């Protein structure tokens, strides 16, 4: 099982993940795309990355805005897996 991150580790990581914020035991970011099809295409790319990592975010699609919520439910909070997937989402979102 993945180890939970300390508050300090999470704060340090968030400084390097612009657009992400902490919401309790989760990391959250909303990405706005130029169009609905582009938003859905980004979700598809994130789904592929998440499947490859075997770590799946909660995804909320609202027209061109997509909110990604990351948490390692099996560990009961935030782990390195969440930070890694957040960085992948940032890379895919450009």
From TrEMBL:
Its EC number is 4.2.1.96. InterPro entries: PCD_sf, Pterin_deHydtase. Pfam families: Pterin_4a. It comes from the Bacteria. Keywords: Lyase. GO terms for biological process: tetrahydrobiopterin biosynthetic process. It catalyses: (4aS,6R)-4a-hydroxy-L-erythro-5,6,7,8-tetrahydrobiopterin = (6R)-L-erythro-6,7-dihydrobiopterin + H2O. Belongs to the pterin-4-alpha-carbinolamine dehydratase family. This is Putative pterin-4-alpha-carbinolamine dehydratase. The lineage of its organism: Bacteria, Bacillati, Actinomycetota, Actinomycetes, Mycobacteriales.
């Amino acid at each position: 099982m993945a180890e939970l991150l300390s508050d300090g580790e999470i704060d340090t990581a968030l400084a390097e993940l612009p657009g992400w914020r902490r919401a309790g035991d989760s990391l959250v970011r909303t990405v706005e795309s130029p169009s609905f099809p582009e938003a859905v295409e980004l979700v598809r790319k994130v789904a592929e990355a998440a499947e490859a990592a075997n770590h799946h975010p909660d995804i909320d699609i609202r027209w061109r805005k997509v909110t990604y919520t990351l948490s390692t439910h099996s560990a009961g909070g935030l782990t390195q897996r969440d930070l890694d997937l957040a960085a992948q989402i940032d890379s895919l979102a450009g």
